[in-house]
Design brief:
single chain, 361 residues, Glycosyltransferase, two-stranded antiparallel ribbon, 13 helices, 4 strands, globular
Length: 361
């Protein structure tokens, strides 16, 4: 059965219930069409609002019947579902109201079904580097919790998130970070990008009223400090690896999420990030979309002229790079796949909506 058939927005209203025992689908990876250059030229003529609306429609059209999304080759189903669901939330829809309520609700159902007895949201057999999916899921579900009106459903979400927080605490390494898998499964290896997903997810849970041990956050902050180099760059891991612009931007966003607005490390981290990411055209550092997914959050929190200037530049570039087809608007750049790039770009383009507590100033 083809799990990628386009779906209507009102499908939830026509079904009696949503199954909570959802099986993981394998989605066929999307390859750029032969006439990509023509589509790109068409997309470049649209404005930001049209790009966002088309992008959200594209995500809905490419959601599986079981409620999830995947990266290329069917990878990262938990992480992709959480990222795509968050992009839909940023439009203003909730699991019960709005144009994308059906898709959001099914994404919630899917992620709840991925919650394991040990608290991990995800499946180690199909979610390689499963801490990404776990962190992004905590973030997405914590933003949903505040909009959930059904008491039984709220209780279910609270239980899932409480267990998820406990899992993150156990998965933390001795140095205070996280790796691609838990400290136990990964021989205590840690690295910056997965650490950031955990801290953002934990902060989202705490904002939603889920208890998060302060010690877990304090150890994560100490980890970021340890990884910050004299020039403000944040290195790949506590074991070394050199400063990385993408991880540096993510680390600043992480500190802001943790409430560390006056952290003494932030000024030089901001200087380093601006040097490498301030020029939108600079792509020499790798992981461009990942870097700006977090750098945009930093600039949005900075506000004022900095945000206005950055927003104007990033919107111009993202609209110009969009691909338009019958399903809507997407972004095909990057090796992870169009779901990832489209979801992260839509997050950037919708930050100014101020819809989600985790991204608000």
């Amino acid at each position: 059965m083809n799990e990628n058939l386009p779906r209507g927005r009102g499908r939830r209203a026509n079904q009696g219930f949503v199954s909570f025992t959802i099986v993981i689908p394998l989605l066929v990876a999307f390859a750029p069409p032969d006439n990509w250059r023509i589509h790109r030229a068409e997309a470049a003529s649209i404005d930001v609002n049209e790009a966002v609306a088309g992008g959200l429609d594209w995500l809905v059209a490419n959601q599986s019947r079981r409620g999830n999304w995947t990266a290329n080759e069917g990878r990262y189903p938990t992480a992709m579902t959480a990222l795509a669901g968050t992009a839909l939330l940023l439009e203003g829809s909730t699991p019960t109201q709005g144009a994308y309520a059906d898709s959001i609700a099914q994404a919630v159902d899917y992620l709840i079904s991925r919650s394991r007895p040990n608290g991990l949201i995800g499946d180690p057999k199909t979610d390689d580097r499963y801490t990404y999916g776990h962190g992004f899921s905590m973030l997405f579900l914590s933003q949903v919790l505040g909009e959930e009106e059904d008491l039984a459903r709220r209780s279910e979400l609270i239980k899932v998130l409480e267990q998820a927080v406990e899992f993150s605490g156990r998965a933390q390494t001795k140095d205070g970070g996280w790796g691609y898998v838990s400290a136990k499964d990964g021989n205590d290896f840690d690295e910056g990008s997965t650490t950031i997903t955990q801290v953002q997810g934990l902060r989202g849970c705490r904002n939603a009223g889920i208890p998060v041990p302060r010690e877990t956050i304090d150890r994560a902050i100490a980890y970021i400090h340890k990884c910050t180099m004299p020039d403000g760059g944040v290195q790949y891991s506590s074991k070394g690896g050199g400063g990385r612009p993408a991880i540096s931007a993510a680390a600043i966003a992480c500190l802001f999420n943790a409430g560390e607005y006056d952290d003494t490390h932030v000024p030089r981290m901001l200087t380093y990030a601006e040097k490498h990411l301030g020029n939108i055209a600079n792509a020499g550092f790798g992981h461009w979309h990942y870097a700006h997914y977090y750098y945009s959050q930093v600039m949005y929190r900075e506000g004022g002229q900095k945000w206005s200037d950055y927003r104007r530049q990033i919107e111009k570039r993202l609209v110009a790079e969009a691909t338009k087809d019958r399903a809507g608007v997407s972004w095909q750049q990057g090796y992870i796949g169009p779901v990832y790039t489209t979801a992260t770009n839509l997050t950037i383009l919708q930050l100014n909506n101020g819809m989600l507590p985790i991204y608000q100033r």
